[in-house]
Amino acid sequence: MKRVLLSAAALLLVAACGTHDTPAAAPATSNPHSGHTAGSAPPATPLRGGERFVDLALPQPYTPQAPNGGTDDYRCFLVDPGLTENAYLTGSQFQPQNAAIVHHAIFYRLDPRQATEAAKVDEQTPGEGWTCFGDAGVQGQTAWVAHWAPGAGETLMPSGSGFDMPPGSKLVMQVHYNLLETGAAGQTDQSGIKLRVAAATSPLKSLSTDLFPAPIELPCAAGESGPLCDRDAAIADVGSRFGKEAGEQEKYLVEACSEGKVTAGDTQHCEQPVESAATIYMAAGHMHLLGRSIKIELNPGRPGAQTILDIPQYNFDNQALVPLAKPIAVKPGDTVRVTCTHDAKLRKMLPQLQKLPPRYVVWGEGTSDEMCLGILVTAPTT
Fold first, then answer.
1. What value does the mean pLDDT take over residues 306-331?
2. pLDDT tens digits for 224-246?
3. Nearest to 341 by CA among 254, 214, 236
4. Which range is least confidently modeled, 5-14, 70-79, 373-382?
5. Alpha helices (runs of H) in 264-356, residue ranges in sequence order
6. How far, in Å, CA of 321 to CA of 15, rounded?
7. What would the pLDDT profile of 124-161 be if each residue is shown by its tens digit?
8. Which of 146, 181, 218, 265 is the Cys-Cys partner for 107 at CB 3.0 to 4.6 Å?
């Protein structure tokens, strides 16, 4: 398949599913926009044939600190599953040690060269890990092989499939810490992950994670005013908090999705062409606290159109990947559309956002910014 490469953005969240394997998920909170869910995760599903568990965790607690006057810290940590032979990652269960401040986590697979580079960056950076807004902070393409967001429990790949893990592969665990909550300053975290690894004694279907973003052009709500209600000022503010590349992300999305035309409003969408044959096995949608609904469609308005995922009432605390009842085949010439609706009026209803100044909301890495992201786990069709 084809995805839009998010130059500064990695974007969020979890992986799990299959036609018969249903991932366990923590129950959603009664408030659909509370921001975080705490509580114990259910136990892992019993191992399937050829699998074993690998437990990884931060060696020392980390104290998040948001740079540049912001309220978000993206921190990358190098973790080593100790693989000496070819293997597959067939499932994962992220274990947020401090769920009050962990917004989401993404795991990127590094090849041996990238792992060496990451180790040098880690060694040269004081404390645990290194700052990494948007991606793994190393050169070259990295593979997104697992992620977590509130509401997700264990994630299982479909039986007979997994993410390739060559010998010597290591992982970058990128954690987004949200420090908006009162009392978050000074808290520590020592999160980890339980990996489900299968030996490559017999070839499995190789999976990939494809990202389908759309721009955010959400004006201030009626009755709101302030300097950041100006679009240019709001975009400059994103850049000041997360760097120049992050500040240009909205421009890239508008150019890719609407030929550079900015249309302000609650609902935005983006259509992206499929470039290679594949099968979709699982799907998820990701927004932040102002999200109302998200939909992922295949070939909308054309014969044979299908809805891949439809979440009419988005709940930030329930972002588990959804297993498709039946895998969906796609081919070159098909189109994937992601559509998101956000609501600026929610800002006054949410304790985390009430004290912040009104703003014109665009794509940004922070909890007070927004995202519109469709996530598909696929396998190539030969």
1. 93
2. 999 999 999 999 999 999 988 88
3. 214
4. 5-14
5. 351-354
6. 6
7. 999 899 999 877 778 777 899 998 988 888 999 999 99
8. 146
| Token representation of residue 105 | 């986590």
E-strand stretches of 87-223:
87-95, 102-110, 130-131, 143-148, 155-156, 161-165, 170-178, 192-199, 205-206, 208-213
DSSP class of 9: -
How many whole angstroms separate alpha carbon 71 and alpha carbon 257?
A: 29
> Residue 256 corresponds to which tokens in the numbers above?
């890719």
Residue type at position 196: R
Determine the residue type at 147.
H
The token duo for 49 is 């044939």
CA dihedral 247, 249, 252, 253 (to 10 degrees): -130
Cis preceding-peptide flag for 13 (omega within 30 of 0)? yes
Please give the domain boundaries of the chain with CATH numbers for all domains: 51-206 (2.60.120.310), 209-380 (2.60.120)
